[in-house]
Amino acid sequence: MAKINFGGTLEEVATREEFPLERAREVLKDEIIAVLGYGIQGPGQACNLRDNGFRVIVGQRQGKTYDKAVADGWVPGETLFAPDEAARRATIVCMLLSDAAQIALWPSIVPHLTAGKALYFSHGFAITYKERTHIVPPADVDVIMVAPKGSGTSLRTLFLEGRGLNSSYAVYQDATGRAEERTLALGIGIGSGYLFKTDFKREVYSDLTGERGALMGAIQGLFLAQYETLREHGHSPSEAFNETVEEFTQSLLPMVGKNGMDWMYANCSTTAQRGALDWMGPFHDAVKPVMEKLYESVASGEEAQHAIDSNSQPDYREKLDAELRALHESEMWRTGETVRKLRPENN
């Protein structure tokens, strides 16, 4: 493990140089890895592991997602099974089902977690909130986690491009004495660029805060507030969208990703520079209390309980579809559809 300086703090990081794919294959050479769930993270992790030479099977119930697994080359009765059967056959059981599905299927999975197996997660939710999820692993299995910092689609796309998505990793329970090397081998096997150490609680706290905050919830709220302000002051939909979303995603964000916001500030016009420096403080001061309130809601378990309660309702899918449809049909994102079609690469 390397010690790397992140902004003045030394952290333990595992890279492909220190833990190469050949070593990962050696560590897991006698293992059968069952990926349960073929929805968000499942396809990317399962296919990457398979392509990297590991023994992988998939556990998925019948339906559209099952058909997708078949289309991806998983063979019913050979590499594709019902979730409980896949868990029975495996030595490493990867719980990549949704949080709600993990809760529902846990009673059928836990009998197959026999001594020496590993129970793998890509999210700390089930274990951190075990009083609410009732997912309590047996004491004689390893409980481990690799959490890619992005979607399963991104994990697969970057893998196919010869790149990698950074991941965090953690060991919650080391029953075999091999839990950490199993974890790192799986992290390299799924195509992680590098792996940084965390624990289950910190992962879920940061993840829930991030997706509700800057990654999705806050950015949509910020986009909408600026778009509405411009529209209410007489700007056209195309102008409001281009100045709010299109310039950010197509021009500025790639440069920030490549060089950092500090570089962005140093390489814009002096007028933009002055305004950005002057206004970042008021925006920070306005948003920070909301972020603190959000983090407290995550840490208290309120967010987890709300997710569990909402996602277990019989009409959950209908309500979700209605909310997503309203977002899709909003003027801002209907304008976005038109703007994207007009991009040069689409003509």
Radius of gyration: 22 Å
DSSP helix fraction: 55-70%
| CATH fold label of the largest domain | Rossmann fold
Number of domains: 2
Number of helices: 17
Describe the SSE topology.
Elements: E1 2-6, E2 9-15, H1 21-27, E3 33-36, H2 42-51, E4 56-59, H3 64-71, E5 80-81, H4 83-89, E6 92-95, H5 99-109, E7 118-121, H6 125-128, H7 130-133, E8 142-148, H8 152-160, E9 165-173, H9 179-189, E10 192-197, H10 200-212, H11 217-232, H12 237-259, H13 261-266, H14 270-300, H15 302-311, H16 316-328, H17 331-341
Parallel strand pairs: 3-4, 3-6, 4-5, 6-7, 7-8, 9-10
Antiparallel strand pairs: 1-2, 2-10, 8-9
Helix pairs in contact: 1-9, 2-8, 10-14, 11-12, 12-17
What does the model show?
It is a single chain. This protein is an alpha/beta fold. The protein has 2 domains: 2-198, Rossmann fold (3-Layer(aba) Sandwich); 210-346, N-(1-d-carboxylethyl)-l-norvaline Dehydrogenase, domain 2. The chain is built from 17 helices and 10 strands. It has helices at residues 21-27, 42-51, 64-71, 83-89, 99-109, 125-128, 130-133, 152-160, 179-189, 200-212, 217-232, 237-259, 261-266, 270-300, 302-311, 316-328, 331-341; strands at residues 2-6, 9-15, 33-36, 56-59, 80-81, 92-95, 118-121, 142-148, 165-173, 192-197. It has a 10-stranded mixed β-sheet with strand order 1-2-10-9-8-7-6-3-4-5, sandwiched between helices. Strand 1 and strand 2 (9-15) form a beta hairpin. Helix 10 crosses helix 14 (270-300). It is globular. The model has no long low-confidence stretch (mean pLDDT 95).
